[in-house]
């Protein structure tokens, strides 16, 4: 999940979620970054409405929290 | 290697140079399969890709020459050349390119010899056909057709062609008559060479829903953590206050602390207890 | 929320959530870091079992808010 | 219900719910006590787990709280 | 809870819930009365419609019953 | 409710909820403290497991209540 | 949560929730106050309708209680 979190750090700060930016955030956390995962993330998020996903989370945090355990 | 290319006529040499120079210019060089794409669709796809990717159709032998002349590791691309390959160049990352190409896929009518990409199912129910020889055509292709109420109907749901099976001429004819378009046609990426690494389609198919769900999950987790740890932010402060107030009310009711805000709850609780007890004595 | 996300990047990567680490992650994202917020975050997380906290539906009131509508 | 409440006063204070005790509580409230009702109550409570009855009802007030929203 | 029960004994008997009355009921039950709690109770009850509070609670148990229990 | 909140400030900070402590907290907030209410609060909390009490309130019925709204 | 409760003590008493006021309340409780947490709290409360947030809890206190279980 740290790749997702990194993207959300950027998104929440109003920054664009680019490969370079995600890599920089992860590297700063001392994580050995896998390029292909970053690429996949950026490509996948390109089609995801992060704002909406976050809003959805706020609407029903309790339910989701139960699932992943 | 220069020697090798000098055997080629000038236009071929130019073509090889072009392939090489594009491969140097773009971050990604890929091979796409053009098999079965009609000219009209091909034009549409080229238009869709304009500005995002360069599509170049050329002879496989020239592609092999070109990458062979570039050496390792890009020459590995030659092992992926198959049938009607074309070259694609872009600065997108391979995942992005794969996604874009997937979006160009359209459903087409099947031709004899095509392979069913998934189970082709024909649903039960009436068709638009009037009774006639067509019933026989359907039946011969293995479709349970009959005439009912002046119409040709399919009597029951039928898996007409199983996934992976070849569609024969009769089946293709029936599918076309029923206007069922089972074949995915579009540019399918065979391999992408990007930043020194080869990416195959199996790696590149990403489940966007999963990413979406993970973003939701991540947001929920962050929210839960923020509230749990009482770390105040614009998003968490209200639920934190609500949580604190709720806890205070719970404590007040539980310990029967007679405070104006909660005395009604305490009364309510006492009355319910009395009722419950009364119920047990009757 | 980006401060919390930064903490989760670190936690998910098995790193300790320290002031320096959080600051590094945020800075790498191009965020102008406020020391007091970092300090507050790290202090708030002190002693918190993050694993447990993320899974807990601490967010109930939001659900309640949605319900009566 | 005042007879029941009287019994609950006693039970909550850790006292035994006897005819005399119930009568005393009710009388202190200025109530004209009916002996037969006291007898009936005490007899009825014989063998009843008051704690359990009360615990069952404890669940409800939270629900009541939900209503006025 | 015995203080609130005492108040409800009084209320159910149609008596006024005063500090003296509550104290008398509790004392009759053999309880060592804490003046401060009596005061707090009577103050909290000032202006409260006990009847309504009881009715509200009564409305809720139906919901509680619906719950999986 | 400020008296209860004061008690929770103390409890959450791992301090004992005594009359003096509650009075000090309320006074620091600029509140004119009523001794009897402080006494009543501390008396009510005597023997109460605060941790448990804040968490109590029968989860199931409330959820049920929220749903049909 | 003690920082939050301190803010609620102040709010319930009709006082303004300022950094100084929160610090005073916490200090009176014998808590070693972390400035950064006070700052973060007061900043987050800016523009927040505490009354409304509290009312939300009133709507579903039991749900909140469900979480820690």
What amount of the residues of chain B lies in strands?
Answer: 15-25%
CATH topology of chain A: Arc Repressor Mutant, subunit A
Tell me the structural class of chain A. mainly alpha
Q: Please state the CA-atom Rg of chain A, rounded to the nearest Å.
A: 13 Å
- So what's the CATH class of chain A? Mainly Alpha
DSSP strand count of chain B: 12
Total count of domains of chain A: 1
Mind explaining what this structure looks like?
The complex is a heteroheptamer, with six copies of chain A (69 residues) and one copy of chain B (282 residues). Chain A is mainly alpha-helical and 69 residues long. Chain A has a single domain, classed as Arc Repressor Mutant, subunit A, CATH 1.10.10.1410. Helices cover 70% and strands 0% of the residues of chain A. Chain A is built from five helices and no strands. In chain A, helix 1 packs across helix 2. The two termini of chain A are 14 Å apart. Chain B is of the alpha+beta class. Chain B has three domains: 124 residues, Ribosomal protein L10, N-terminal RNA-binding domain (Alpha-Beta Plaits), CATH 3.30.70; 64 residues, Alpha-Beta Complex (Molybdopterin biosynthesis moea protein, domain 2); 71 residues, no CATH class. Chain B is built from eleven helices and twelve strands. In chain B, a hairpin with a 2-residue loop joins strand 11 and strand 12. In chain B, helix 2 crosses helix 4. The longest helix of chain B has 21 residues. The radius of gyration of chain B is 33 Å and the shape is flat. Classes of the chains: A mainly alpha (69), B alpha+beta (282). Chains B and F meet through helix 10 of B and helix 1, helix 3 and helix 4 of F.
């Amino acid at each position: 999940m740290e790749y997702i979190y990194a993207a959300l750090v950027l998104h929440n700060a109003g920054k664009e979620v680019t490969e370079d930016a995600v890599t920089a955030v992860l590297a700063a956390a001392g994580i050995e970054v896998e390029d292909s995962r970053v690429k996949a993330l950026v490509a996948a998020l390109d089609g995801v409405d992060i704002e909406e996903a976050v809003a959805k989370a706020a609407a029903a945090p309790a339910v989701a929290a139960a699932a992943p355990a | 290697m220069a020697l090798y290319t000098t055997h080629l006529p000038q236009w071929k040499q130019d073509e090889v140079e072009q392939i090489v120079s594009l491969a140097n210019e773009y971050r990604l060089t890929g091979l796409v399969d053009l098999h079965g794409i009609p000219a009209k669709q091909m034009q549409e796809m080229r238009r869709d890709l304009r500005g995002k990717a360069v599509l170049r159709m050329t002879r496989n032998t020239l592609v092999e020459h070109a990458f062979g002349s570039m050496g390792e590791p890009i020459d590995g691309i030659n092992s992926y050349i198959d049938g009607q390959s074309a070259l694609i160049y872009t600065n997108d990352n391979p995942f992005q390119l794969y996604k874009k190409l997937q979006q160009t896929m359209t459903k087409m009518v099947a031709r004899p010899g095509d392979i069913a990409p998934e189970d082709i199912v024909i649903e039960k129910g009436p068709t638009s056909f009037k009774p006639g020889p067509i019933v026989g055509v359907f039946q011969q292709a293995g479709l349970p057709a009959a005439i009912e109420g002046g119409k040709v109907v399919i009597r029951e749901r039928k898996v007409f062609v199983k996934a992976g099976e070849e569609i024969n001429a009769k089946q293709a004819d029936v599918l076309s008559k029923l206007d069922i378009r089972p074949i995915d046609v579009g540019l399918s990426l065979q391999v992408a060479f990007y930043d020194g690494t080869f990416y195959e389609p199996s790696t590149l198919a990403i489940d966007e829903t999963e990413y979406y769900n993970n973003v939701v999950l991540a947001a929920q987790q962050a929210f839960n953590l923020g509230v749990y740890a009482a770390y105040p932010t614009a998003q968490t402060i209200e639920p934190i206050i609500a949580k604190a107030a709720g806890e205070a009310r719970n404590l007040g009711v539980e310990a029967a602390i007679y405070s104006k805000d909660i005395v009604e709850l305490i009364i309510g609780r006492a009355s319910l207890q009395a009722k419950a007890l009364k119920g047990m004595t009757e």
